[in-house]
Structures are given as C-alpha cells and as structure tokens.
Amino acid sequence: MITSVIKEKKNSKGMQDKIKQNSIKLESENVGVFYGHKKVLQNVTMRIQANTVTALIGPSGCGKSTYLRLFNRMNDYIDNFRKEGDVIIDGNEIYKKGIEIEELRKTVGMVFQKPNPFPKSIYENVAYGLRIQGINKKSALDEIVEKSIKQAALWDEVKDDLKKNALTLSGGQQQRLCIARTLAVQPSVILMDEPASALDPISTARIEDLIYELKQNYTILIVTHNMQQAGRVSDHTGFFYLGELVEFGDTRQIFTNPKSEKTESYISGRFG
Amino acid sequence: MNNAAKNKLKDNLLKYFGILCTLSGLIALAIFIIDILMDGLQRLDWEFITSLPSRFPEKAGILTAWTGTVWVFCLTALIAIPIGVAAGVYLEEYNKKGALANLLEINIANLAGVPSIIYGILGLEIFVRILNLGGSLLAGSFTLALLILPIIIVATREAIRTVPKTIKEASFALGATKWQTISRQVLPASASGIITGVILALSRAVGETAPLIVIGALAYVPFVAKTPMDEFTILPIQIFNWVSRPQHGFIINAAAAIIVLLGFVFIMNGVAVYIRNKAQRKGQ
Amino acid sequence: MLKAKEYIIEKGLLLCALITALTTIGIILVLTIEAITFFKEISLVDFLTDTQWTPLYSEKHFGVLPLLAGTFLTTVIAILVALPIGMGIAIYLSEYAPKSFRKTIKPLLELLAAVPTVVYGFFALMVVTPFLQKIIPGLSGFNALSAGIVMGVMIIPFISSMSEDALHAVPKSLREAAYGMGSTRLQTVFKVTIPSASSGITASAILAISRAIGETMIVAIAAGQMPGLTFNPIKPVQTITAYIVQVSSGDVPFGSLEHSTIFATGISLFVLTFILNSISFWVSKKYHRQYE
Question: In this predicted complex, what is the ipTM?
Fold first, then answer.
C-alpha cells in the first residue's frame, strides 16, 4: 500500500517533470540584430524547452554570442544596438516597455567566457546579488551562500576560507564561483558564454559535470567553440553561420545526421 | 675617425646630454632645497610655529598662516572631492559619447589650462561680491575648489577607465542597477587612482597663492580663524609678504615658512606616489 | 522607487559635471562685463596702442603693450630654458634610460611641478638673481632674466612628461624598421621617432607657453613692478599677472577705474591662454587619432 502511494507520487512527479520539460521557456521569433547599419543576426527563430541544455555553435563572428546576450539584454550597452522580432521568456516579450532590466536579470543569470569574480572575498562575491536586492541579514545570506557554493561543487574546496579574496582561487575555481554567484540570485535560466574556454581540461570536465547537474533546476543556454563539449553536455544544438540559424535540433541528430551541408562541414572540421 | 665611430660618438653625446638635462632639473631642485634649509632651519622652532604675525621679524610666527592653510585644505577638499568625482563618474559612465559630453570634455581640458589668477578674478566677483562671502575662508576654498576641479575630474575618469569591463558586466548580469554597479564595484576598484589624483590636486591647491591674493586674503591676520566665514591668510601669502620686505629677518622667516609649506606638499606627493605604486603592484 | 533613485542620482551627477561649464561661462561673463565698464572709459585703441601703462600714477596711461612685452619676454626666456632641457629629458627617458631609472626619476621630476610657485619666486629672487649678478654686471635686483629662467625650471616637467608620452606612443615597429635599415639610435631618434611624435611634442610646447604666460608668483616676486616696453632681460619688467597681483594686494578701491584694469588685463590674459590651450588640445587630439 505504502509503496504504491510513494510510487504514484513518484509517477506524478515524473509526469510534472515531463510537462515542465516540454514547456517552452525561451523563444525567439524572427529576431534580427543590428549594430548601426551592420546586421549581425537575422531571422532567428528558436524555441527552447525548460530544463534542457541547448548549445549554440558556429565559427567566430557568427552571432551566437550576440544571440545569447539577447536573453539578458546585455547587448543594450553596445552603441547603436537595435533588434527586430520578439525575444520571449515565459511567454513575455522582454524588450517591451515596462520590463525592468534588473528584474529580468535576476531571472536570467549569466556566466562569462573569462572568470570574472569581483575583487572581494569569496563570500561577498556570492552574496553580491542578494545584497543589491537589499538582503543583508546575515543568517539569510549565510544560508544562500553556502547552498549556492555547494550547488556549484565548490564548497569542499573553499568552506574554510570564505573570507579569502576570490582572485586567489585558481581559474577553474573562479569560474565555479561565478556560477555560484549566479545561482545565488535564484534564476531560472542560465546563459553561459564559452564558460570553459579559459580553463584547463580537468576544470573543464568539472564545469561540464556541473552543467549536467544544474539542468534539473535550470534552463541552460551555452555558447561553445568546442564541438565535443556541445556533444557532451547539450540536449539540443543550434548551428549559427553568418548571422543566421542554419540548423537547430537534437544534439545527437545534429552531430550524426545533420540536415544542412554547412552544418556537416563545420562539425567535421572543414571550416570554423 | 670612420663613419661608424663618428655615429657612435654622436649617439653617446646625445645620451649624455639627456642625462645632463635630467640631472640639471634635479640639481636645481637640490640646490634650492639646501639653500632654503640653510636659511630657514635656524629660525624654525616651536615658537615660530605657534606665534602670531608681528612687525618684528624675530617675533613673527606662522600660526595664523598654517592654520589658514589647514582650513583651506579641508574646506577645499570637502567641496571639490564630491563634485569632482561625481562629474568624473557622470562623464565616464553615463554620457561618454554625446554632444554634451564632447563639449564638456573640451571645456574641462581648457579649464585645466586657465591661469590660476583668472580663477581668483572669478572668485572675487562671484563668491566675494555676489554671494557676499567677503574675503573669507569659504570664498577662498570655493575658488580653489573650482581651480582643482578639472584635475580631480580627469583623474577620476582615468581611474574609472582602468576598471575591467568584465567586472561591470558581471554586476549587471546579476541584476544590479547602474548606480549599484558604480558604487559597489567601479568606485571601490578605482579608489586608489582617484585618491592619488585627489591628493595631487589638493597639494596644488595648498601651494596656490595668486587666486587667493586676488580674492583678498590678507597678509596680516592677527587671529586664528575659527569659522569658515573668518578672514584668513595662508602660508604662501605669508611667504609672499615676507619676501617682499627689505629686512633680512623677514627673508629668513620666509625661508622657514617655505620649509613648512614644502614639507606639507612633499609629504602629500609622497603619499600619492606611494598609493599609486602600491595599487600598481597589486594590479600585476 | 529604484528607478526614481537612479534617475535622481544621474541628474545629480550631471549637475556636478555642469559646474565645469558654469565655471567657464562665469569666467567669460565676469571678465566681459567688467571689461566693458573699463572700455567705456578707455578706448580699445588706446588700450592696444598706447605704449605706457601707468593706471596707478597720477598721470594715467592705459596701454597694455608694456605688460604684454613683459609677459612675452619672461615667457620666451622660460621656453628657451625649458624646451631643450625638457626635450633632452624626454628623449633620454624614452629612448636611452633603463626602465628602473625611469621609474625612480619620474616622480622626482614631478616634484619640480609640485613645488608651489611662491617658493620658486623666492628661489629666483634670493638665489638666482644674486648669482647672476656676479656674472652679469648691471643686472637689476628685479629682472626678467632670473624670473624667466626659474619659470623655465618650473615648466620642465610639463614638457618632459607630455613629450615622453608622445615619444612612447610611437609604435615600436617604426623604430625597428629604422634600425633594420642600419640607422643608429641617434638617427632613429631624430629622423623617425621625433617626427612621428611631433604633434604630441608641439602640443606640450604650446601648453608650456600657455603655462608660462599665466604664471604669476615667480614674476610678481622676482621680475619687478616696472611695466616698460622693453625686451632687455636684465631690467625689471611687469607681466599681466604680476600687475593683477599688484592691484589686488594694494588698497585700490573696488569699482574705481584703477581697479577695473584687472578685468581688462585679465580678459587679455584669458584670451591669450585660451587660444594657446585650444591649439594644444586640437593638436594633441590629432596625434591621439594617429595611432589609435
């Protein structure tokens, strides 16, 4: 009896997960981006399901980073930036009037190419996102800081010296700290812009494991130069070329049986 | 002598000329400091520092002058630092490319080159007369604050420019507003550069004489200033006054006062250089 | 709430930045308005052509030429001292000196610029003049020569540091190209590096001239108070700045014609330095563009 209830509960949770997984988290509808007169992205339409990892690949300058940065409006700081089409998160167009950029970014976290911890202590790095929201209560901060660092698989290495300057950590540790910092704000989406490109292979492997773990609770969009990495961590892959989304689909399908010739030649290393 | 040897000789001549030039400036400075010390050190004692001005050189002291200088230093800092840093932040972070920013930048470059005595004329008209502050400490400090504003603004902008863009991006990406990013990341990260610039600017203010003569700071003030509305004198004006007198005793006094003034200025410069070097080492 | 706070902060910062604009407007308005009252009494033609400047005497003349001559004379002497020495330092530090030497010497040279000008005035009057009097008989106690020389020492760091920056900005590849063709260091310096950095060096020289024209305390202390249409460096002269100090530290009543002379001379000084600063700014902007 008891076991069957548990089983059923488990089942229904599984069902929920399934529904959650099928729901669309991020969308772009015919999105184009201009820097001045230069068009760097055009007609990108993509639907990204919740709790999946989507890799964006393509040669440098293909627009994949620009596309990634649309979702937390990081391109807004570039001179003469202009976009057309719709960028949608949870059904809301995020460029429409009345959207608070700061609120948006609490939902959409970002991890950058080079680890960029603040020149502060490990603790303060993770607490930063909370402090700017006015949360300064020590017990609350302590709890979230610990949880976030644990989630980023860094706790065992730093738990004894949280007061240490973050810049003294190794590159891989710094990047995990940046991930912890992002998690502390409790986003639902995490954007990663080549998060392992500045790291050694062992650190890279740890970040990849971490991405796999984080998928349970977050929707992850990752730009990567490293094809194997895209293959290892992602559920879906989008291939960008010259500002266009050439192909988007299941990672396995893209890597084994690409529809487009361009995709195939890029993946097989003929250019890029 | 063949051509190569000739060239080598010429090359060496230029090099030694360069060394000579470099040393000549420093030697001039050294001769000068030694001369001042020889003239003034004998006169520099506790009594000299704590005495009021007097018609008799042996009795005269610099109490009103150095307290005036300290007053001016503090008031000028209070006025100029917040305004200068704020203006620097605005120009570097809020409005970097617009027509207004461009205009302000040219304007600031020009202001930095306006002779200090012109600021004195401005201060005389605006602070002393229109705002009716008279020849007070406050009028003098406002005048000097305007004078060093361009220096503080330029130093602030340069210091802010060295803060990595990645730090700002990280802060924005966590949902921080612009001001949160500036106040919590940009300003702390550029603090040492800004402080260096501010100290150098204040050291300039402390040595300024001409603008304060124009606004009517007096050479003879028989009391120590108690409020910012009091009349005042400062070390450089006291020195100027003593230098212009024929009696040898006053010249000795001037030299002694110069030692105090130079001590003040050199210490400030030393501190500025120290902070700058320390920050540079940390940055590496 | 947060938006309102951000808005208020931005406008507050803007206000602070605008104070610099107000300063310029204030300077121009004050000088112009007060100078107009002066020029209502004294014609501009007299001001620019009369060869005597005696507003504080009973027989008054208002010709600015003697003050300009004094300013010009001390400035020329200062530049003659500062330009070769400053350039020598700049070339040595950027092309020859070992890096460690550069690092220790630069803050020391900056000290030259940090010394208050009233102190330089003392130096000129009490050290340089007595010394020169032993060499040049007939040198007055107050004279343009000592004041100019000491002013030159004061502006050395302006020329040396700006010129060094300009020399430093010349791309290494350019120098290497010259060496590659067999140039000696000297030839490279004079044929490649200095010409490439010429606009930066020019800008520094112009700025130094402007600085010398506006310098006050050295000339007020050591050059004398005798405005005269002379270019004789061993005689006392008076510069525009020294005249303003003379009026300000005397007891000339405010609002009198005598007092308003400081605005007429002040505006001349402002215009002169403004033109020079603008040229310098423009030239150095051009050179920044060159290598960016």
Answer: 0.92
